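Side project, low priority. Logging it here so it doesn't get lost.
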Amino acid sequence: MKDIEGFLIDLDGVLYTGNRAIDGAPGAIKFLTENGYPFRCISNTTRKCRHSVSSHLLSLGFDIPEDFIFTPPLAAIAHMKNTGRTGYYLLTTGDVDRDFAEVENTNPDTKPDWVIIGDAGDKITYNSMNMAFRYLIGGAELLALENDRYWMAADGISLSAGPIVKALEYASGKTATVMGKPSLPFFNLALQDMHLLPEQVAMIGDDIITDIGGAYHAGIKGILVRTGKYRSESVDTAQIKPTRIIDSVSQIQDII
C-alpha cells in the first residue's frame, strides 16, 4: 500500500476500548506524526462531545489535536445550518449535547425541525421514545448521528443507536438521514480537511459495515483490525471485503 498518503482512523475499538488504550496504539499515532503522515480520527461515538473525546484520548496517552477528531454532531450541525432549520429534540447520553450549543434550539413550546438520535443508553425509555415519535409524526425529520448495531463497551458488547433508529423509522414511517459512518458526507468532511483524495487514503476500523463498507463506497481502501468489535463471522458474510486485515493498529508501520 505504498500509494497511501494519509489515514482515517476509528477510535473506539481501534485506538482504545473503554478506559484502556489498545496495546501499541499510542505508538502508532506517534509514528504517523513523526513521519509526516496526515490523519484524522472519524468516530461514531455519540456519548461524548468533541472536547471530551480529545480529553479522553489525552488521558490514555494519545497526542491528537482536538480539531483532528470528527464526530457525527459536526456533520449534523453542518446539515442543519445548510437547511436553515435548527430546532431539535436530542436523544443522547453523556455530554454530546455540548457540541450542539452553537445551534439555536427551538423554543420549548414549539415543535422541533429535527429528532436527533445518538447512543442514548439508559435515557431510552418509553416516554423519551414516545416523545420522539410524536415529534416525527408532527412533521420533524429524523437524523441518526450513527446507525451502528452495537459497540464494544468496557463491560462487553452493547446495543448502539441503530436499533433505536430502526424502531422510530418503523413507527413513524420516516427514513433517517445518517450523519456518521458510513455516510459519504461524513467521510468527505475529513478528506477535505486533510486536502487528500479518496484514493490517497486508507481507513482503519473494527466494523466491517460502517468502517470498511463506508470507506469502500467513498473510494477509500479499508483496513480492518482484529480488535474492538471485530468478529470473523461478520467478515465471512460481508459483501464488501477489506483491503487488508491486521491484528491491531500497532501494525500500521507494516502496511505503509
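Brief comment: Helices lie at 25-34, 50-59, 72-83, 126-137, 162-172, 184-194, 208-217, 232-237.
Revisit when time allows.
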